Amino acid sequence: MTAEIQQQCLLPFSGTPRRYIHAIEAVLPGRVQLTVMGITVIDPPADKIRAAIITLEGLVLFDASAAADNVTIHRALPPFDGREFALHLMQDVRFIFIPPAGTLSSSGMIDNGSAICRYEGADGMMVDVIVHHDQTWEIEQYKGCGKPLRRLKSYSPKNGVPDLIELSVHKPRRYALRLELISAEPLLPGAAE
Hints:
mainly beta; twelve-stranded antiparallel β-sheet; globular
């Protein structure tokens, strides 16, 4: 049963390269709201990601790639031009699309029958992945004190890809993202370069 639960906990994460395009509604610090397009390319086997933020008119505001923890910024216009912004954005992309780093420390079923897996990182970070019967999921990241740093909830999955993802980030600065799926497609390895 444990191996089956652990397999269920991997449902949120594609094991193969994919490109996602989302309409993103963001509520940023200072109650700033904006709507942009996000293009995300992930290559889990190579541990590479690439993310771009584009205006609705097609202007590329931000474009960066990451291999492991090495982030390369290809283009960044204000207010997306800070190195900290790039690092946090890539952390968000990893949190949404890549299996948690660290060791699987426990797994099981919660009262409502959903599968849950807890991953513990060497840095004291913990991530809980909860997969429900309707194939939606929740992911929560927190430090040892139990206060959440990031929380994700998915809605309306089709073929394992949710139509909607809501991400709330509590630290270092509070913001929320609502990602509405436009398309998701498989890619060949090396696509995130």
